[in-house]
Amino acid sequence: MQAERARRQGREGEEHGHSTDRPQPSLPAVASLCIAGRAAPQCRPPFRSPMAIGLASTGSDTRNEVRHPQGAIQVPKITFVTAEGESIDVDGRPGETVMLAALVGMVPGIEAVCGGACSCGTCHVYVDPQWRDAVGEPRDLEAGMLEGVDNVTDASRLCCQIQIVDQLDGLVVRVPV
């Protein structure tokens, strides 16, 4: 009975592309490979989105494009001006937040302690005057959080609440001291 079950499981493994001539690792062995950071086939997710893979830059300085499985796409560029006056250009991804772009670009002064939950104020920025209309006004939750932040002006926003859209290509925000 057990021999018949083992033989059937072997055939099922062949049908699914598994080799039956070598033993499959046990669950504890697979788990230890995953924890150790090795790329065991059992650890890989079945699907990886373009964001998880990371989109390769085309290297073009004049157009802000990335290579995508469906062809080159325009990516909004965001300029962060640090308290020291350094300009840092970061590629933003439509649908994500300016805060995430700042974290990916390792912009100093953007701590984002709450991870974008609008509950800490550590992603406070000043939106340049020419971009205020495009970015819009803070909603009630963000306005309430800004009340507890130092050095707030009419240009203040929490960058975790600014969604990146194509129309924000060229956005300039300043990081407070």
Would you write up a description of this structure?
This protein has 177 residues and is α+β, with helices and mostly antiparallel strands. It has three domains: 2-44, no CATH class; 50-74, no CATH class; 76-174, Beta-grasp domain (Ubiquitin-like (UB roll), Roll), CATH 3.10.20.30. 25% of the residues lie in helices and 14% in strands. It is built from six helices and seven strands. It has helices at 2-15, 27-35, 50-53, 98-104, 132-135, 140-146, and strands spanning 65-66, 73-74, 77-81, 87-91, 124-127, 156-158, 171-174. The strands form two sheets. Strands 4-3-7-5-6 form a five-stranded mixed sheet. A two-stranded antiparallel ribbon has the order 1-2. A hairpin with a 5-residue loop joins strand 3 and strand 4 (87-91).
Count of the domains: 3
- Biggest beta sheet summary: 5 strands, mixed
Strand order of the largest sheet: 4-3-7-5-6
Shape: globular
CATH architecture of the largest domain: Roll
Quickly list its features.
5-stranded mixed beta sheet; 177 residues; Ubiquitin-like (UB roll); 14% strand; alpha+beta; 6 helices
Task: Describe the protein's topology.
Blueprint: H1 2-15, H2 27-35, H3 50-53, E1 65-66, E2 73-74, E3 77-81, E4 87-91, H4 98-104, E5 124-127, H5 132-135, H6 140-146, E6 156-158, E7 171-174
Parallel strand pairs: 3-7
Antiparallel strand pairs: 1-2, 3-4, 5-6, 5-7
